[in-house]
Design a protein that fits this description.
α6 runs parallel beside α8, α6 runs parallel beside α9 and α10 packs antiparallel against α12. It contains 16 helices and 17 strands. By secondary structure, the chain is of the alpha+beta class. The radius of gyration is 23 Å and the shape is globular.
């Protein structure tokens, strides 16, 4: 049994800038994390630390436990809590970092700028009725899933560290408290623009638009100019910016669907302008395929179901367009019509990208309309038979499966013959197509039951054996590994009773 170990390390190499702090002070509050009683560092992502230019040692730098719990502020960091709003389940709400502190932006050796944020680090002016804290269970969950998505080659925030606070956090029971250090390209959200539109003014909307362009979409800088002390923004540039965000969100959702991921809480405050996945509270992965699958305990209407994620992405981009409408042109009716025309192209864009992705899952380089029918027939069969999503594509990719009986029926075998005939038309040949499929279809995903078993042991019993094993497997999800035979076998009835919660 691997008992939770305290990591006695020091960390140096911080290279902070604080560009967000130079924006309008209505967008944030300067506030330090709340100190904790007895911090202990229990997870440290050395691979990510190296990418960020951070150095681990036993002699130089600040104590890791102190920094990653919020007790010590790294040199150059200027902590803030960010203000933002958001549509939560379709309803507009004033929000903000209620239990998170942005330390600043680390400038990596590559020149890349990333946000360093502590999560579970105490109350802020945006906490409302919350206590500002987080449980070890929920912070381990975000660490595990965010890193899993990264290794599945899906844009995601990442996790640098988890530190215990030495304090208990009251939830449905008492839990060990913890702080997660989250790394992301930024924490600019659709909800940030909604907040500025609602509570600030048009000049600062232009300023923040420029800031976002500079951080994530420099190709649009030519459409922004200064006139005296004010900015001028080309309306067409704003429209094209939203179009680009729409494309990134489409790519993200298509990538989620490639691996069977359900985000679970696609509110506009959880929709990043960088196109990264963020906030993992009620997320899960589908096992038996059903497009209406929902695991979140609060999503009683299925708003964020597996198949509905594309439609919600379109809705969220529409909220971004609405927030930017004042700078899309003086004639607001014309601007609104232009935005609607642009958004109306989402379904066709999504269908095109989804078809290409599904073609890749089946080894088809350039899927056409007839291939679309072949794909639909497979999805219909999977839904009717409640076939395992991941295992079906593992089987088709030539992977070893513990039990082939789910695919032995006549209907599937007839479909398989059609697919194999189609595969013969691939110029690269069947073997090359199968190798390509194995790079697209993961061999291992964070199976819900394995995640919960690992978190139960690590988060509540301080036993990290299952957590560490699962984390190691998920670092290399496309390879063949020596894992237990039932790693990809889901316990009968598990999904029928499984629910997720917004703990992170």
């Amino acid at each position: 049994m691997q008992i939770m170990k305290k990591l006695n390390i020091k960390v140096s190499g911080w290279n902070f800038d604080n560009s967000y702090n130079r924006l309008n002070d209505k967008l944030f509050t300067r506030i330090k994390p709340q100190e904790v009683k007895a911090p202990e560092l229990v997870l440290f992502n050395e691979e990510l630390a190296r990418e960020m230019g951070l150095r681990k040692s036993e002699k130089e730098g600040l104590e890791g436990a102190e920094v990653f719990s919020g007790n010590a502020i790294p040199p150059g960091a200027k902590p803030i809590a960010q203000a933002y709003a958001g549509h939560q389940f379709g309803h507009f709400t004033m929000l903000g970092d209620g239990r998170a502190h942005l330390l600043g932006e680390q400038i990596c050796p590559s020149g890349k700028r990333v946000d360093v944020q502590l999560k579970g680090s105490g109350r802020t002016p945006y906490s409302r009725m919350g206590d500002g804290r987080a449980t070890l269970y929920s912070m381990l969950r975000e660490y595990l899933i965010s890193e899993a998505l990264h290794h599945l080659e899906i844009p995601s925030s990442r996790s640098l560290a988890v530190a215990l606070t030495g304090e208990q956090v009251p939830r449905e029971r008492m839990h060990p408290g913890a702080v997660l250090t989250r790394i992301s390209s930024s924490h600019i959200r659709v909800g940030t623009f909604e907040y500025i539109r609602q509570f600030v003014d048009e000049d600062h909307l232009k300023n923040f638009f420029q800031y976002t362009v500079q951080r994530h979409y420099p190709e649009f800088e030519a459409g922004i100019s200064s006139r005296g002390d004010k900015l001028e923004v080309d309306p067409e540039t704003v429209l094209e910016f939203v179009r680009k965000v729409m494309e990134k969100q489409t790519d993200l959702v298509v990538n989620w669907m490639r691996v069977g991921f359900i985000h679970g809480v696609m509110n506009t405050d959880n929709t990043t302008l960088s196109g990264e996945t963020i906030d993992y509270g009620p997320c899960a992965f589908i096992n038996a395929y059903h497009p209406k699958t929902v695991f979140s305990s609060i999503d009683t209407q299925g708003r964020y179901s597996f198949a509905n994620q594309a439609g919600i992405a379109q809705w969220n981009v529409g909220c971004l367009a609405g927030a930017l409408l004042p700078i899309m042109g003086e004639n607001q009716e014309t601007a609104l019509e232009s935005a609607r025309d642009m958004l109306s192209g989402f379904p066709a864009l999504f269908r095109k990208k989804w078809l290409k992705m599904m073609g890749q899952k089946l080894g088809l380089s350039n899927p056409d309309k007839e291939d679309g029918k072949l794909i639909s027939e497979l999805m219909d069969w999977m839904e009717k038979e409640q076939a395992d999503y991941t295992n079906t594509f593992r089987y088709l990719s030539g992977r070893e499966v513990a039990d082939e009986s789910p695919w032995s029926g006549e209907k599937f075998q007839n479909w398989k013959k059609q697919w194999e005939t189609r595969l013969q038309n691939e110029a690269r040949g069947k073997d090359a197509a199968l190798r390509s499929m194995q790079k697209t279809n993961p061999n291992y995903i964070p199976r819900n039951h394995l995640v919960e078993e690992a978190l139960e042991d690590a988060g509540l019993k301080a036993n990290f054996t299952k957590f560490n094993h699962l984390m190691e497997v998920l670092k290399d999800p496309y390879s063949d590994q020596q894992v237990e035979k039932d790693f990809n076998r889901v316990p009968v009835g598990w999904d029928d009773r499984y629910q997720t919660f917004c703990g992170t």
